[in-house]
Amino acid sequence: MRAVVPGSFDPITNGHLDVIRRARAIFDEVVVAVGANSSKRYLFEPEERLELVRAATADIEGVTAEALHGLLVDFCQAHGAGAIVKGARAATDFDFEVGMARMNESMTGVETVILPAAARWSYVSSTLVREVALLGGDPAPYVPDVVVQRLATRRAHD
Ligand code: PNS
Fold first, then answer.
1. Pick the catalytic residue: 40, 69, 102, 120?
2. Residues in the chain with pLDDT < 50?
3. Nearest Cα to 129, choosing from 55, 50, 44, 68?
């Protein structure tokens, strides 16, 4: 079965990569859907977030990435995916994910598998990584190399 791992990935972190790898261990193929939550503002443009996801997952067999426009359930149908996989770091994430999972299931029957974040990455979020990097901290422990470089370029130009 093919599964979709959706998110905004602003930018992709080691925590996201862990969820993508674990999703791939369960499912035959994984399509990472790079979208946007309409109530959030982003540091990176959609094309750049997708490019960074593709670069960071290039070495994982059976994983591809595509832009997500519109509803996630429509993306799942268009890509022949029978499941959604999301990571949850804490109870607040879980509550939010359960609401979306129920809504998505009610629309097309697609199921969501919620993976608990690895303890090692449970405090890592794109928001905190952006803050650390843009204020001069070292993001290297939390994100793939390609993102470290992009954050450094970004900081130099801002
Ligand atoms: O990184 P995020 O903020 O968890 O990503 C959220 C995202 C993009 C996965 C979510 O907003 C989403 O699924 N958007 C697509 C639009 C949609 O289907 N909305 C209804 C969800 S019930």
1. 40
2. none
3. 44
- Whether 39 is catalytic is no
Mind listing the pLDDT tens digit for each residue in 112-128? 999 999 999 999 999 99
- Nearest residue (by CA) to ligand 1, atom 20, is 71
7-24, pLDDT tens digit by residue?
A: 999 999 999 999 999 999
Nearest CA to ligand 1 atom 5: 7
Tell how far CA 59 is from the center of its chain.
Answer: 16
Ligand 1 neighbours (beta carbon < 6 A): 6-8, 35-37, 68, 71-72, 100, 103-104
